[in-house]
Design brief:
It is a single chain. With 540 residues, the chain is α+β, with helices and mostly antiparallel strands. Helices cover 14% and strands 35% of the residues. The longest helix is centred in the N-terminal third of the chain and has 56 residues. The chain is globular and about 75 Å long. Keywords: Coiled coil. This is Transducin/WD40 repeat-like superfamily protein.
Length: 540
């Protein structure tokens, strides 16, 4: 009988096992060290912000004490002096408010600093009018009825810098349905022109932004998002739209620390059951304008942004002949009275608000023969009243409204997917193309057919470019952020002498449709097909 030998067990080398365990612990320690360094940096930023906030608080408290020491003017004397100039005023004066007076004893121009959170101080100047109306400033109702002369004469005596950021209040039809009450037509403050073209490609090294760790909020849409727009008049308000036809209004928390869903509005078109293709805020921030498909149903709708009375009104005019309306933009010179739309019917339409009518807009066809293919985007140049348009026929056009003719055109080597004017330099604009690695092009409206700079990114998901991916300028006009078919946000510095991004942010899990700069807060918002909104805080 054969002898059964016991099987020998393999020896475990304790030294090897200990080495592997030690290597794993070293990696773990490295990761923990990196996390600690990030948290330390974040805490340092928070401490810096805390100190700045404390300084601002102390300044505000000292200013408040100085104002409270002043003796308030008597109401009856104020009304008597105002009546002596033929201007009737009836408004409650706060205990810490004063009425400026001229040397002759008459009441000077009525000015109040707006409570708007924009860094630019906006001064509302009461102008001459025919009827009385009510204005609400700092939760205090003041009724102002101006005569045919008096207050408006002093506005012309202001220095040019003061007139730049002053808003003129004029009478508006009391039946305006956007607010349900008497309303004023206020001139939107215009920014001053800054010459940024001389800085293009002037630096060998890009200045990167200090972007914190992103936070994500579910977008609350059932289908893929389409648009993300931030209110130009209210810092804490933005809106998103998606293929489900719903527009979500969001409240941005203080300092961009999060988002809260305010309310939703169903904006599906009544006949064709189409969703909004693009959105644009009215410059006053009281309504959203949306564009749809041009086959049969309504083409433009006005969405009331009020949470108390959300409603959608569809315009009856249908100037576009067929296809999708790709873009809508308010013209920067119009003070909210003109916007332009561009569609697949090769046409660009300028809509103008009718005077003396309630939310009635008159369309005017600018051109339908310049482009030989779909018009993908539209924009406005503020100081020359030029309407820019980009088309899939590889051409860019600028129409001069003052002379009623085409000012110039640019021909590209690939499809033009969009156009965007610079918010700081009025002569600079950017076009999005379909060329990999050179998707974005910079042009000067004063130099025809000359490209200033070309930059872009390389895609891992393929070379095809999507027209639904859009860009946005930073408020200072030096940076541009773009989405991508990859789950990334590309940030470009126009001063960087390179065609590559200044930095790339790993933002989402799927393609990023848009990355939008906040006009006043150091914040970058993004939407993606992963159905999340990304908040990316920028530290100075």
């Amino acid at each position: 009988m054969a002898e059964v030998r016991p099987v020998k067990k393999a020896r475990v080398h304790e030294g090897d096992h200990g080495a592997e365990e030690g290597l794993g612990l070293v990696k773990l320690v490295d990761r923990r060290r990196v996390d600690v360094e990030k948290l330390v940096t974040h805490i340092a930023h928070l401490e810096k912000e805390l100190k700045e906030a404390q300084v601002k608080l102390s300044e505000a408290e000292s200013l408040l004490q100085q104002i409270r020491k002043r003796s308030p003017p008597k109401k009856d004397k104020c009304e008597e002096k105002v009546a002596s100039r033929g201007v009737t005023t009836k408004f409650p004066l706060e205990s810490n408010s004063t009425v400026p007076k001229e040397s002759n004893g008459a009441v000077a121009k009525s000015t109040w600093t707006s409570s708007h959170s924009s860094p630019l101080k906006k001064t509302w100047v009461a102008d001459e009018g025919r009827t009385s109306a009510s204005v609400r400033f700092n939760k205090t109702e003041r009724s102002i009825a101006s005569s045919s002369h008096g207050v408006a004469e002093q506005h012309s005596k202001l220095p040019a810098s003061s007139q730049t950021y002053s808003g003129r209040i004029q009478d508006m039809k009391p039946s305006d349905k956007l607010s349900g009450q008497k309303k004023f037509k206020v001139v939107v403050p215009q920014r001053e022109h800054m010459d940024l073209i001389v800085n293009i490609r002037s630096q060998k090294k890009a200045k990167k932004l200090d972007v914190g760790l992103p936070s994500y909020i579910p977008i609350q849409h059932k289908r893929k998002p389409r648009s993300l727009v931030l209110s130009p008049a209210t810092d804490h308000l933005c809106a998103t739209s998606a293929l489900d036809g719903v527009v979500n209004f969001w409240q941005i928390k203080e300092k961009g620390l999060g988002l809260n869903l305010s309310h939703t509005v169903d904006c599906i078109s009544p006949i064709t059951r189409r969703w909004p293709e693009d959105l644009a805020w009215h410059p006053m921030g009281n309504a959203l304008f949306a564009v749809y498909h041009a086959d049969g149903g309504p083409q433009v709708s006005i969405i009331n942004a009020s949470k108390q009375k959300p409603e959608v009104q569809f315009l009856n005019d249908k100037p576009h002949e067929k296809g999708i309306i790709n873009s809508i933009q308010f013209m920067p010179w119009s003070n909210g009275t003109q916007f332009a739309t561009a569609g697949c019917d090769h046409g660009v339409v300028l809509w103008s608000e009718k005077e003396g009518s309630d939310r009635c807009w008159q369309p005017h066809l600018l051109h339908r023969v310049l482009h030989s293919s779909s018009v993908s985007g539209v924009a406005g140049i503020p100081h020359k009243q030029l309407v820019l348009s980009s088309g899939l026929d590889k051409r860019l056009f600028a129409v001069d409204l003052a002379h009623g003719k085409s000012a110039f055109q640019h021909t590209l080597e690939s499809k033009a997917l969009g156009v965007l004017s610079n918010p700081a330099d009025f002569n600079l604009f950017m076009a999005q193309t379909g060329t990999p690695g050179q998707q974005l092009r910079l042009f000067d409206i004063r130099v025809h057919r000359t490209e200033l700079h070309a930059f872009g990114w390389k895609q891992e998901a393929g070379d095809s470019q999507s027209g639904y991916i859009s860009q946005s300028w930073s408020p200072d006009g030096l940076y541009c952020a773009s989405g991508s078919t990859d789950p990334k946000i590309h940030v470009f510095d126009i001063r960087y002498n390179s065609s590559e991004p200044a930095q790339t942010l790993d933002a989402h899990q799927k393609r990023v449709f848009k990355a939008a700069w906040h006009p006043n807060l150091p914040l970058l918002l993004s939407i993606s097909s992963d159905l999340f909104i990304g908040l990316h805080r920028i530290f100075e």
